[in-house]
Design goal:
The structure is a single chain. This protein has 215 residues and is of the alpha+beta class. The chain is 27% helix and 26% strand. The protein has 2 domains: 75 residues, no CATH class; 125 residues, Jelly Rolls (Sandwich), CATH 2.60.120. Strands 1, 2, 3, 4, 6, 7, 8, 10 and 11 form a 9-stranded antiparallel beta sheet that branches. A 3-stranded antiparallel beta sheet has the order 9-5-12, with no helix packed on it. A hairpin with a 5-residue loop joins strand 1 and strand 2. The protein is elongated, with a radius of gyration of 21 Å.
Length: 215
């Protein structure tokens, strides 16, 4: 079924959820999700459970596998960006404030894959795994893991920050989208706006221990 150009968000969402769109129509609809169209996002959120219940009573067929996975990632990310702003500075407690320093004089410092743990950062959906802490030089190296739809608060860099994307996507402000293999360096005193991810990401970051969160 080809949707009329004047179709409502609810009509389009119902076609999308039931796999009744052509590939071109799917691409157009998903572009509206990516752009943060609130009417479309709300329609998908409201109709998703209904469509799932209806389809559960239909004889199984083989629908496009990408439709539901793409829907969940895009809708969750858009809702998070529009409706769930990151916590304010007063609500963020950095776990690395409590980390003890590592031995910066050691000739070799090795952490095995099975060692260490993931800690909550104080920002919902964002976890960190410490690799090395050098308090004397106000530096830390760590892995950051962001769940699909998560976002991190704006902050000012107390020292240089280096970020390497190991996996997934990272949206930096409104203009920069980083993916696996991309690298970014921020100078001391520079500011990062909201950083968010659509499908989740894994980052290797070296930064100051005392970046200032912006309310």
């Amino acid at each position: 079924m080809t949707p009329d150009p004047t179709s409502s968000a609810a009509e389009l969402a119902s076609l999308y959820l039931t796999g009744a769109m052509t590939p071109e129509e799917i691409a157009s609809f998903e572009a509206r999700l990516d752009a943060g169209d609130l009417d479309v996002i709300a329609a998908v959120r409201d109709l998703g459970p209904v469509a799932e219940a209806l389809l559960a009573n239909v004889e199984p067929v083989t629908p496009p596998e990408h439709v539901r996975a793409s829907l969940l990632h895009r809708a969750a990310a858009s809702l998070a960006a529009q409706d769930h702003a990151p916590e304010s500075a007063a609500e963020v407690e950095h776990v690395w404030d409590q980390w003890s320093p590592d031995d910066a004089t050691a000739a070799l410092f090795t952490i095995r894959a099975g060692e260490g743990s993931w800690d909550d950062t104080g920002v919902e959906g964002v976890q960190v795994r410490r690799l090395f802490v050098d308090r004397a030089n106000d530096r830390m190296t760590a892995l950051f893991r962001m769940a699909p739809g998560a976002s991190y608060v704006p902050h000012v860099h107390d020292g240089p920050e280096e970020c390497y994307v190991l996996d997934g996507d990272l949206h930096v402000g409104d203009d920069v989208v980083m993916r696996a293999g991309d690298y970014q360096r921020c100078a001391a005193g520079s500011t990062h706006g909201v950083q968010r991810t659509v499908g989740g990401c894994l980052l290797l970051i070296s930064s100051s221990l005392h970046d200032e969160v912006i309310e």
